[in-house]
Structure formats: C-alpha cells, structure tokens
Design goal:
By secondary structure, this protein is α+β, with helices and mostly antiparallel strands. 50% of the residues lie in helices and 14% in strands. The protein binds zinc ion.
C-alpha cells in the first residue's frame, strides 16, 4: 500500500476525533480502515503525566509471519490516560495523534522493507560511547533504527511541520515538531556526531523523495 494512501485514511478518520471519544469505537474505526494482515490496532492505558495536546502515546511493532494464523503484520498500540474513561481530544491533539499513527506506520513499513531485503541476516550492534545512556544509544544507534527513524520523519514533513530548508537548522527542531530529529540530536550530536550526521543525511534523502513525488503529482494535475 502506498504511504500517501495511509496518510489519507488516517487524516480522514482524524476529522471525527475532536471531543470526547469512546476508545473502543476509535480503535474499531481504525481497524476497519486497514486490512488486518497489513496494519492492526489495539489500545492500552498508561498512568504517567502527559501534555494536553499529546495525551495519546503510540507504539508500534513490525511482526514477521509466525504461522498461517498469524501472518506478517504491523501492530499499532494506542495508549490512553488511565484516569479518563473516554479520551478527550483537542483539535491539535487529534492532529497530533494522526501524525503519530502515520509516523509509526511509516517506521514499521521501513522495517518490513529491511527484512525483505535480507531476511536472515542480523544487524551489527551499536557500541555505546562511555557517556551515553546505554539502552537508548543501543536502540537508536542500530543501523536499521537510524534508517527507520529517518524514514518516519516524512509523516511530519508532509503535514508541514518542518521542511527540508528548516532542517538545515536541525539543532533547533523540538520534539513537538519532529520527534526523531529531536531524539537523535539529544543522544548523538555531541556523543557520536557520526551517527547524527548519518541520520540527518537519510532524513534529507527521504524528504527529498517525497518532495519530488508531490511535485510530480502537482505537475500531472
Ligand atoms: Zn524501529
């Protein structure tokens, strides 16, 4: 499925997310919009603090085919605040949630693609530098994660959160504008600039790709 089609689907649903929403029906809508062997959704609760326009946490996973009953799929989990029975979404909150879902799908699609190219090969592990947070550095430093995180920035780029020109000032982008850029800067810019640069190069490349695609689409109209 084309990534643009995914964006269209999610944004169309998001128009009805503003206000007080019944969580199971929100999940049902999402599941109805996608084929289960491509993307499926489920919900959980969390207890931590959150920002008003960022009250839903999205996590996702690409799962290889396990058996005939469990085929290959992308699993997306939406985590809602525990205190509320229904979720209340502001206009910005609904938009943020849509971007988070799209971003997660972009990211997992990339993993799917990576797996197809070399199904049985394991990636080399990243060796954390002395001053790094070991777990975070190992996760973000993994070559597949660098690639997938760079790829997911397309979700924020297409909705106009930032553009390639603005990325020249990548040291200023905050987590609300682009989470991946923020996280790589935080964990690598000073600690291991090679990784930070490698990541940015990939961001430029994947964003150039979508710019040419949208230009082509505009010209053919
Ligand atoms: Zn990943």
């Amino acid at each position: 499925m084309k990534l643009e089609r995914i964006e269209k689907k999610v944004y169309a649903l998001a128009e009805n997310w503003i206000g007080k929403k019944h969580i199971p029906s929100l999940i049902r809508q999402l599941n109805k919009a996608f084929k289960p062997y491509i993307v499926c959704f489920s919900s959980e609760r969390f207890e931590e603090e959150y920002f008003k326009d960022h009250n839903v946490i999205v996590s996702a996973h690409y799962c290889n085919r396990i058996s005939d009953i469990v085929p290959e799929h992308i699993y997306v989990q939406l985590n809602f605040p525990k205190k509320q029975r229904k979720v209340t979404l502001t206009k910005e909150g609904a938009q943020n949630l849509a971007i988070k879902i799209i971003r997660a799908i972009h990211h997992e699609y990339r993993h799917k693609h990576q797996q197809r190219q070399r199904p049985f090969l394991l990636q080399k592990e990243y060796k954390p530098k002395p001053k790094q947070n070991k777990m975070k550095a190992m996760y973000y430093g993994n070559p597949d994660e660098i690639d997938a995180h760079a790829h997911e920035t397309q979700a924020e780029a297409t909705c106009g959160r930032f553009n390639i020109n603005k990325l020249r000032s990548a040291h200023k982008i905050g987590w609300k504008e682009c989470e991946a850029v923020f996280m790589y800067r935080l964990h690598f810019r000073k600690q291991d600039p090679k990784v930070w640069k490698r990541f940015l190069k990939k961001v430029y490349k994947s964003n150039e790709e979508i710019q040419t695609i949208s230009k082509r689409a505009r010209n053919s109209k």
